[in-house]
Specification:
By secondary structure, this protein is mainly alpha-helical. Helix content is about 90%, strand content about 0%. The protein has twelve helices and no strands. Helix 2 packs antiparallel against helix 3.
Length: about 350
């Protein structure tokens, strides 16, 4: 085998090995280590204020860590409590008024069907009869499937809550331990015989995951705020609920705010509500150009990945990791790209 063929084989083996390693780690190790990964990320994030309290105010590090951790989780808990309470109110309001919304939607569909009958010279009610029949079948099918799902969900809720509470407790404890021993961990990493390999892995993880997650979370938060405030100013009673849902949808690769706002704008135009349609479209433009402006500046060009690779990573992530693959799929693609490229550079 000549040198060129051997070099190409090494590159193929590196990409195959890195891909397999990253996928196996996300599939089997990450679910078990998630509370500790979150704890480590929080500990790294609060390290500077903890160090400040330790050195400037001369508090013991474990006390400084405890104070900052209590403050951080208190703020998170307060935000979840008040935001959750408002969210539950809006969900309850939507459930109470669901029949009136369904009637309004039914009237809108009926009006559209009349226009279709008129346009294609069909007998009156033909389109609506067909659409209504399909809607009835769909609703009946959902109702039949919803019963067992609700029963299973109610039975598994306590199990889920117990697991969540346990993981949350371990996360807080691990954060305290990581924060307290941060300097020892750095020293151990520096003196380890695998320090170069560990520095390589941790450096890549910090650079890729930290940058990607920070960028997506910040943009998602800003999108939620813009959508919620914009819909609130328009008088929408579910501004917070819709703002959060649209922000989450926007964080999904390939999708985005246009998945919600563009059909919404089209429906409003059909209904003749041009001012509201213009306002909804304006919110969409703010979100769209906000992401287009912020993402390259926060993420940097080195983490850019082509749309087709992002689409493939999203699809494969869904197949391999389930619904969490929407997030872990693109992250895996970024990790594979960076780690494999660095290894290939080293053998070159």
């Amino acid at each position: 085998m000549d040198k060129s063929a051997a070099y190409k084989l090494k590159i193929v083996l590196i990409y195959v090995g890195v891909t397999a390693g990253v996928c196996l780690a996300i599939k089997f190790i990450l679910p078990l280590a998630t509370p500790f990964v979150i704890a480590l990320l929080v500990a790294v994030a609060i390290d500077k204020p903890v160090t400040f309290l330790t050195k400037k105010i001369h508090l013991k590090r474990n006390i400084s860590s405890g104070l900052i951790i209590v403050l951080v989780f208190a703020v998170i808990g307060a935000a979840l409590f008040f935001g959750g309470r408002a969210l539950i109110r809006q969900i309850n309001s939507f459930a109470v008024n669901f029949d009136s919304y369904y009637d309004s939607f039914n009237k809108f569909i009926e009006g559209c069907c009349k226009n279709v009958d008129s346009c294609f010279h069909l007998s009156k009610g033909t389109s609506y009869e067909f659409v209504n029949e399909q809607m009835t079948r769909t609703v009946d099918s959902i109702a039949q499937k919803a019963g067992p799902v609700i029963m299973n969900s109610s039975r598994s809720f306590m199990t889920w809550f117990t697991l969540f509470f346990t993981a949350f407790t371990f996360c807080i404890m691990a954060t305290a331990f990581f924060s307290r021993d941060m300097e020892k961990m750095r020293y151990t990493l520096k003196e380890s015989v695998f320090r170069q390999e560990l520095a390589f892995v941790t450096g890549n993880l910090k650079n890729i995951l930290g940058t990607y997650l920070r960028t997506q979370l910040l943009i998602m938060l800003l999108t939620c705020i813009v959508c919620s405030v914009g819909l609130y100013l328009l008088g929408n009673p579910y501004a917070l609920l819709l703002g959060i849902l649209i922000g989450i949808i926007d964080a999904f690769p390939i999708l985005g705010t246009g998945t919600v706002f563009l059909p919404w704008t089209l429906v409003l135009l059909i209904m003749g509500r041009f001012k509201t349609a213009a306002a909804i479209f304006a919110i969409y433009l703010i979100c769209y150009y906000g992401r287009a402006f912020l993402e390259p500046r926060l993420m940097g060009h080195k983490l850019e990945i082509s749309p087709i690779i992002m689409l493939v990573s999203l699809y494969v992530g869904l197949l391999l990791f389930g619904i969490s693959g929407v997030i872990t799929g693109p992250i895996a693609a970024l990790l594979i790209k960076e780690i494999a490229a660095t290894l290939v550079k080293n053998i070159g």
